[in-house]
Amino acid sequence: MLISDKQKQILTLLADGEFHSGTELAEVLGVSRSAICKQLNGLSALGLQHAAVSGKGYRLEQPLELLEPFKINSLISEANQAVLSVLEVHDTLPSTNSYLADLAQKNAPSGYACFAEHQTAGKGRRGRQWVSPYGCNLYLSVLWRFQQGGIASTSGLSLAIGVAVIRVLKSQGFAEVGLKWPNDIYCHGKKLGGILIEVSGESDGPCSVVIGLGLNLALSESQGQEITQDWTDLKQINAGDIVSRNALAGAILNELISIVNGYEQGGIAPYIAEWRSYDCLKGQPAVLYIGQQIIEGVVDGINEQGLLLLKKHDESVQAYASGEVSFSASGL
């Protein structure tokens, strides 16, 4: 569903979480009160629930902080602004990753970043849906072009991006967040966010990378019912306090650019030790799924190339480059 201009105006007015009368909204938008009711009812499809109270008016279930490019850009360092070619904020996209992947095929420049308030077909790993209600989380993708080394030069990039996200979260007081190999942000055994890296190009020449991040900030229980695994958000972790979306968006984008800008030269090596310090799976019993193959063992961290190390029942340790790791959250 696309959000209309009238609905965006209503959201901007109701974003403070306070009551606004139907008369006030109708006057500002230049429409009838019945038209206001119709526009508000249409917002439910975006996951935006509102209350209507006689004598008080309308208000959203929870306040909204809409993303603003100017506020995000103000947190990007001068050095990183030099390589940030485009910064966009969209109301609705099918997927920020798909949007930039299409632009990459049309020669869009490196350093092209986009956020969306809402995704109709958000993408997780292995074709999963990423639940993306309007205005309450972060959905970010960045297009980056690697000129040398081909697709192999991007090896381990999802781990480095995970380091970028954890650095920002810890700097903002979220001390107990961690990383689950290869691309998940976790806290207290529950998924907080995920990274999706999509690469296209030559095996030994130029290639383009779309780096996607979804991070849960403040999901309602009804929105969370669509998620098929244990999840959490920053509001729960932060005892009900909501963090600034613009401040977090700017800080994460800045840190992400800092890492990806030098990745072609340095690779994963500078981030291995730090990633290990955030590893929330090491020492935990786990099952690794690679296609139809099922491998049980205990996670033994990652090696110097960022591959998962799994200790099997015979005490042998083997490295794996890909796969899906399942574990018992109660063990974390």
Features of this protein?
single chain, 332 residues, alpha+beta, Arc Repressor Mutant, subunit A, BirA Bifunctional Protein, domain 2, SH3 type barrels, 3 domains, five-stranded antiparallel β-sheet, 14 strands
Overall description:
This protein has 332 residues and is of the alpha+beta class. The chain folds into 3 domains: 56 residues, Orthogonal Bundle (Arc Repressor Mutant, subunit A); 209 residues, Bira Bifunctional Protein, Domain 2 (BirA Bifunctional Protein, domain 2), CATH 3.30.930; 51 residues, SH3 type barrels. Helices cover 30% and strands 27% of the residues. The protein contains 12 helices and 14 strands. The strands form 3 sheets. A 7-stranded mixed β-sheet has the order 3-4-5-9-8-7-6, sandwiched between helices. A hairpin with a 2-residue loop joins strand 10 and strand 11. Helix 2 crosses helix 3, helix 7 packs antiparallel against helix 10 and helix 7 crosses helix 12. The longest helix is centred in the C-terminal third of the chain and has 17 residues.
Secondary structure elements and their pairing?
Elements: H1 5-14, H2 22-29, H3 33-43, E1 50-53, E2 57-60, H4 69-73, H5 78-81, E3 86-93, H6 96-104, E4 112-119, E5 138-146, H7 157-171, E6 177-180, E7 184-187, E8 190-201, E9 207-215, H8 221-224, H9 234-237, H10 245-261, H11 263-266, H12 272-278, E10 285-290, E11 293-302, E12 308-311, E13 317-320, E14 324-327
Parallel strand pairs: 3-4
Antiparallel strand pairs: 1-2, 4-5, 5-9, 6-7, 7-8, 8-9, 10-11, 10-14, 11-12, 12-13
